[in-house]
User: What shape does this take?
Amino acid sequence: MPIPGAPIEDVTEAYWQVRNALPEGTEELVDGTEEYPPNILLLVGPDGGNVMHLASIEVAEADLALLTTFADALDRAARPRPGSEFQVLREALGELGRVPYYSWMPRGDEAVVADWVRHALSPVLVSPFDGPHGSDDYETLSGVLRYAESLGWESVKVNQDEEEAAERASFSMMRAAGWT
Assistant: This one.
């Protein structure tokens, strides 16, 4: 289907480029089938409890730009009067909402499906380091990650400040995805 500003083939390729940049075991971690995947750092809080997993990925800015264009097109297509250039996308969203390909996909009108896809893209497109502590949290967690990677550690015990930075970043990602 045509996406104004971004051919669907390019959007699909950008999606797979970003997805393939995730560390091995990420999907299994999210699915709950793997507890401690390789190549992802486990942060352990001062009390000994698991805080979160931390990983860095590198993706091309062009891929993120295409995914942003697609997310914006979803917003436009979900409007009551999207305009002729978004009509094909609107019809495709409506079809997905009537007959989802998978049981975990939403049923509903174009707006429901567009919102669902938009939220799925949000953790990639929205920085978890927004807000008043954002840059400090980024520096803190990047430092922990660099230090642990330099030593080849699979887990690291963090102090209270580092744990709080991780929790703020995690909450920001959940909020971006609409999980809160």
